TrEMBL record:
GO terms for biological process: DNA-templated transcription. It comes from the Bacteria. InterPro entries: LysR-type_TF_proteobact-type (IPR058163), LysR_HTH_N (IPR000847), LysR_subst-bd (IPR005119), WH-like_DNA-bd_sf (IPR036388), WH_DNA-bd_sf (IPR036390). Keywords: DNA-binding, Transcription, Transcription regulation. Residues 1-58 form the HTH lysR-type domain. Transmembrane segments: none annotated. CDD domains: PBP2_CrgA_like. This is LysR family transcriptional regulator.
Amino acid sequence: MNLTDLNLFVRTADSGSITASAQQLDITPAAASAALKRLEKQLDTQLFIRSTRQLRITDEGERFLLHCRQALASIDEGKASIQQSQGKIAGQLRFSVSSDLGRNLVQPWLDEAMDEHPDLSLNLIVGDSVSDFYLDRVDVAMRYGELEDSSMVAFELATVDRIVCASPGYLAKQGEPQHPNELRNHNCLLYRLDKGLYDTWEFRDDQGRYRVKVAGNRESNDAEIVRRWAVADKGVLFKSRLDVAMDLQHGRLVQLFKGFQTPPLKVWLICPSRRQVTPAVLMLRDLLRQRCIELLSNSRDN
């Protein structure tokens, strides 16, 4: 059987959509539909029940899906085993990263790695919504925060502090706040993710802890947009130092409240299982760890 057809079948079962699975494999819906029909003919059974409103997998399809997953996983493990035994950095890597890190930092680092390893192929997934490792077929992801699934393989890249910053232009017009409580008098740029709006900023110093409820006239679910607003003199930003490190170095943003501490974040490189830990992933781990540490160190000097 054609491996592409099997892969398409699994993705269609996961997404419940021929169009969605076709987009993932960069083929037309017509080609995807033809591939599924070809697979059904080979098996002499119906895998999906199709209607104008929905696509539903059959009982026979469910049984075949289990074996199909196992077959594809076994092939992937075989490829990884060969690469690991050869120490070869090759093959395709599906890498998920947040918008800020992906566009501003990681992309040029990945270009550097691919120039050094021409047999490596990259599929970069950029966005602030957390990718599903299995549905999106992600091999490795760079993520902030606490790990929610202990079964995954995680490499710590760095511990990052969050900082409040604003552009020199904004501070010249609105004045520079000296204490976190003064943020209530400033236009704070807000970021919204699946878990809600991040409008309570936490600080501490020798005098105590402060939880400041902030507000502003701009919010977005894209962290990169929020960073751009700050650079464009639109307000005050609360962000991971890593996300704004280049802005600090080049003077586009200025850190506020240097005498206060904020809850730190850990940055991880995560794989869904041991079989995804290929030489390419280990190379990526070492590269990202080195670059993050260098960048964080340089940004603290500003």
